[in-house]
Automatic annotation (TrEMBL):
Protein name stated in the entry: Glycine--tRNA ligase
GO biological process: diadenosine tetraphosphate biosynthetic process; glycyl-tRNA aminoacylation
Enzyme class, UniProt record, top EC level: ligase
Principal subcellular localisation of the protein: cytoplasm
Residues that bind substrate: 102, 190, 237-241, 350-354
GO cellular component: cytoplasm; extracellular exosome; microvesicle
Protein's UniProt keywords contain Magnesium: no
UniProt cross-references to InterPro entries, sorted A to Z: aa-tRNA-synt_IIb, aa-tRNA-synth_II, aa-tRNA-synth_II/BPL/LPL, Anticodon-bd, Anticodon-bd_dom_sf, Gly-tRNA_synthase/POLG2, Gly_tRNA_ligase_bac, GlyRS-like_core
Family per record: Belongs to the class-II aminoacyl-tRNA synthetase family.
Domain spans labelled Aminoacyl-transfer RNA synthetases class-II family profile: 170-392
Classification via Gene3D superfamilies: 3.30.40.230, Anticodon-binding domain (3.40.50.800), Bira Bifunctional Protein, Domain 2 (3.30.930.10)
Catalytic activity from the UniProt record: tRNA(Gly) + glycine + ATP = glycyl-tRNA(Gly) + AMP + diphosphate
Length: 494
């Protein structure tokens, strides 16, 4: 079998819509930019990914527990976190096309263009200068750099740019039943703060000892200036975050440990090691003393999928200062300067992965087009090579034909499996077309009920990836397929 040419993002978008994975939101009204709905197969794949992450965090670690914090939080939360004062992107408009861009993304795209043209030193110099200007908040200098690099608007083709302005990314709304009594609150731009404000609630109620972690999966909202590349950058998205609380001075040990652990997790999902890489941050966020991204090679290049950050005590200390409530941990095991006890604000190591980005990475990796056969008889075959534990359906039960009791027997087999793993029944069209339907949504096993089944209670299992077939007793199906599709297979590989 020969591998087909590289997959384009358009291939992914088209397949995702046609086979019930991702739809444009409110499409009958021409959609809403950068907002997507997960279809009947997409929601299953995404839920399986979230389950894998949740189990990897809370089931494999005795010292990590989960919470589910509210989306709405007291507005002072975002003052303490720095989001009200500093959560913004540099925005620039083209006066001719009226199109809005992120200034840093225009410069990053130019740097990629220079690197592709064999000028990596110029590319690095450009990124370094951009970082210097942004750190100094020299927005005039950023505009001048864009013009000096002759960066043109993709629509108008001109360099007629406005001034660069900072654009706050938080969505705000009003809470209260009477307009004049209402106050402004925000849709959370990240899930981490819900963990930080519950740090002591969890620590005390769970009798947790440092080091320990708190995990959370939840929606976050950012009013992105330029949302693009399908589900990679959206205005409503889902985060899977874990904040790991450690003794000050041990944070770099834990940072490196979680860096390796998280890379191992992505490989366990089936993402190839050569499509993943670490990218250390050149410019650190205001709360971090170390930061690295795990990047996946999407059809549009290596991009961030997960971030691992050493956040120091920035968040807990700021919440303590603003709320006037102590956020300290009483460490009975600490013996410092001859003192038998110690109180301190823990340092935090964060792992934060976008559920939607991870979905897109797994979907892109699974999308496979192969040439089957040779010469004039060669045909292209498309299928989703998903890890069996992640597939929307684990097995499809197909009667060879719908007569002579085969359909009824196949329905009986399907019903017997449904309580063990997600199973579908299909008797429409020729058997080859039904195989193809299941391949296109990633079903790893097709179980065929034929005339021999009626004689000896055996069926044929057809394997998605190899198209090989084997004869198996109906009585053995639960154990055989159940083992392969269990979430255990992913957890064992971590």
């Amino acid at each position: 079998m020969d591998q087909a040419p590289a997959t384009s993002l358009q291939d992914i978008v088209g397949h995702a819509k046609e086979y019930g994975f991702v739809f444009p939101s409110s499409e009958i009204y021409d959609g809403l930019q950068a907002v997507y709905d997960y279809g009947q197969n997409g929601v299953e794949l995404k839920n399986n990914l979230k389950t894998a992450w949740w189990k990897a965090m809370t089931q494999l670690h005795d010292n990590i527990v989960g919470i589910d914090a509210a989306i709405f939080m007291h507005p002072l939360t975002w003052k303490a976190s720095g989001h009200i004062d500093g959560f913004s992107d540099p925005m620039i408009d083209n006066k001719d096309s009226k199109k809005r861009y992120r200034a840093d993304q225009l410069l990053e795209a130019k740097a990629e263009e220079l690197a592709a043209a064999g000028e990596p030193e110029k590319a690095q110099a450009l990124l370094a200068e951009m970082g210097r200007l942004l750190s100094a908040e020299d927005l005039t200098g950023v505009r001048e750099l864009i013009i000096a690099q002759d960066i043109k608007c993709a629509v108008s083709g001109t360099t007629n740019w406005t001034e660069v302005r900072q654009f706050n990314l938080m969505f705000s709304t009003q809470v209260g039943s009477v307009a004049e009594d209402s106050s402004t609150i925000y849709l959370r731009p990240e899930t981490a703060q819900g963990i930080f404000v519950n740090f002591l609630n969890v620590q005390k109620s769970g009798r947790m000892k440092v080091p320990f972690g708190i995990a959370q999966i939840g929606k976050a909202f950012r009013n992105e200036i330029v949302a693009r590349q399908f589900t990679f950058r959206m205005r409503e998205f889902e985060q899977m975050e874990m904040q790991f609380f450690v003794r000050p001075g041990t944070e770099m040990t834990w940072y490196n440990a979680w860096k390796e652990a998280r890379m191992k997790f992505h490989v366990a999902l089936g993402l190839p090691a050569d499509s993943l890489q670490f990218h250390d941050h050149d410019k650190l966020a205001h709360y971090a003393n170390a930061a690295v991204d795990i990047e996946y090679k999407f059809p549009f290049g290596f991009r961030e999928m997960e971030g691992i950050h050493s956040r120091t005590d920035f968040d807990l200390r700021n919440h303590q200062d603003l709320s006037k409530k102590k956020q300290q941990y009483f460490d009975a095991e600490l013996n410092e300067d001859g003192k038998p006890y110690g109180n301190y604000i823990p340092y935090v190591v964060e792992t934060s992965v976008g559920a939607d980005r991870m979905f897109l990475a797994v979907f892109c990796n699974a999308y496979t087009v192969e040439s089957v056969g040779e010469g004039d008889s060669a045909k292209q075959r498309t299928y989703l090579k998903l890890h069996p534990a992640l597939a929307p359906f684990k097995a499809a039960v197909l009667p060879l034909v719908k007569k002579d009791g085969l359909a009824e027997k196949a329905q009986e087999v399907a019903a017997s499996l449904k309580s063990t793993f997600r199973t579908t029944y299909d008797d429409g069209a020729a058997i080859g077309k039904r195989y193809t339907r299941q391949d296109l949504i990633g079903t790893p096993y097709c179980i065929v009920v034929d005339y021999q089944t009626m004689e000896d209670e055996t069926v044929t299992i057809r394997h998605r990836d190899t198209m090989e077939q084997e004869r198996v007793a109906i009585a053995d199906l639960k154990a055989k397929i159940g083992y392969e599709v269990a979430m255990e297979r992913i957890l064992e590989a971590i």
